[in-house]
Here is the input.
Amino acid sequence: MFALTDIWNTILHIVHSADTIQLVLMAVVALGAGFMMMELGAVVTTTLIALIAYAVLTFIRAVALQHADAGALLTADWKAFETMQALVLLSYAILFGVVIAVVSTVRGLVLG
Here is the structure.
């Protein structure tokens, strides 16, 4: 039970600590992935691709809007990914996976 509480608290921390642009990027990626997913069995693969797309869009945002050095940012992002806790990665995957699955199910029910 403590593991579920830790995961839930991490998901809430991700949502509450993100700025508006990050939340919009998350929503766009998750909604787009949910609309493109053809069957619910591909939710794991689609979630992985959506997480990679979110990382790329966040990188592009930092380079384009914040004028960050692309090489230094790429190195820093890779180092941050290497030291990322599994709980945070799992929480991102659950967050994206649930939204993708719900959107895909609703799309399937509405569009047939």
In short: Residues 2-111 form one domain. The radius of gyration is 15 Å. The chain has a mean pLDDT of 93. The CA atoms of residues 29 and 54 lie 6 Å apart.
